[in-house]
Amino acid sequence: MNIHINGKAYALGHEIHISVSSALTLHFIEPQQSTFAVALNGDFVGKTDYDTTMVKNGDSLDVLQPIQGG
Amino acid sequence: MSLNIYGQNLDSRLLIGSALYPSPQVMKQAILASGSQVVTLSLKRQNPNEQSGQQIWHYLQEIVTQTNGHLLPNTAGCKTAKEAVTLAHMSREIFKTDWIKLEVIGDDYNLQPDPIELLHAAEQLIAEGFKVLPYCTDDLVICQRLYDLGCQVIMPWASPIGTGKGLMNPYNLETIRLRLPDATLILDAGIGKPSDACLAMEMGYDGVLLNSAVALADNPVLMAKAFGQALQAGEQGYVAGIMQERQTAHPSTPTLDTPFWHQNS
Fold first, then answer.
1. Do A66 and B53 touch (CB under 8 A)?
2. CATH code for residues B12-240
3. Of A44, A68, B181, B183, whose Cβ has the fewest other Cβ atoms within 10 Å?
4. What is the C-alpha separation between B197 and B232, in angstroms, rounded?
5. CA angle at residue A69 from A65 to B145, to 5 degrees?
6. CA B235, CA B225: separation in Å to the nearest integer?
7. Cα-Cα-Cα-Cα dihedral of B46, B52, B55, B56, to 10°?
8. What CA–CA distance (Å, rounded) separates B231 from B216?
9. What residue ranges define each of the domains in chain A, with the CATH number in brackets?
């Protein structure tokens, strides 16, 4: 299946789906060391739901981090 | 005299942004010099191997601890109510605050807020327990609608973001103050000079939110101090009661016993 994380494409072979927790390991080397929040296809996913929320073929994950702002 | 934001009393009436500074160190010095206790920030996609965002985040946490202040996350870049609501939820999880500076942009040219999407987003976020600080145009009816929805704080623009043009429509801003006497009104965006901030406070506004005017100054730390003082001067002027403007000249010096006076015979 193919997914996008922050607009970058990832091809994951014959997987049907993976958890948000697993998808995050594609993005971060050590997710637990980073400050971030997640949206799946534009909908917020809370930290407590990372293990049970599945990312499917064609899905898009946004992983956002703090930055300066006005 | 303190600024009340959803029941939180703050000593400073200045809310300040964390973007565009020459360096994180200057950002920290300027924010501390301003005396502000509310600092805005945002969430964006970032390269996971790039540490600059993490560094900024550490600086902002230090500032908030030092000032006993508050973070005010924004929804910059959102163009629909749905995007803004999602970003607000993400911000609440990370920053552990239900305050949200609600921005929904309707036009890319002047970054003008979309009033319709803004109202939809505000309504949903208030229902979900957020304390919404909406950034809006200086339109009385939009401000009234936001207030009626439950936004205790309303933030009309002075002029488009980052222009430094100051108060484009003083009449509109004065009318909003007059018609919404109980709302906490914060002038947001377009401030260029300390005198702009002073003018807003002289109108009876409760506070000013700015970023570029300080961050893009030749000396951001000194400019931050100047804005802090300008807000105090404007507030004290408003509280003291400004004299009525008059159409004709009136001598300040008593005219009785004027020297060299000769009565025409």
1. yes
2. 3.20.20.70
3. B181
4. 10
5. 110
6. 16
7. -80
8. 19
9. 2-64 (3.10.20.30)
Domain ranges of chain B: 12-240
Dihedral pair phi/psi, residue B35, rounded to 5°? 80, 0
pTM for this prediction: 0.93
Beta-carbon contacts of residue B199 (< 8 Å; ≥ 6 apart): B166, B167, B170, B234
CB distance B87 to B75 below 8 Å? yes
**Residue recorded with tokens 């946490």:** B61
Residue B181: name the closest of B144, B130, B231, B132 by CA: B144
What ipTM is given for this predicted complex?
0.95
Chain B contact for A8 (CB, 8 A cutoff): no
Residue B136, token pair as written in the block = 């809006």
Considering only the beta carbons, identify the residue of A42, A46, A64 that sits closest to B43: A64
Query: Which of B21, B44, B48 shows the shortest C-beta gap to A67?
Result: B44
Are B96 and B60 in contact by the 8 Å Cβ rule? The answer is no
Q: What is the pLDDT of residues B2-60, one digit of tens each?
A: 899 999 999 999 999 999 999 999 999 999 999 999 999 999 998 887 777 788 889 99
Q: Per-residue pLDDT tens for B44-68?
A: 998 887 777 788 889 999 999 999 9
- Alpha carbon A24 to its chain centroid, in Å, reads 5
Contact B41 A27 (CB under 8 A): no
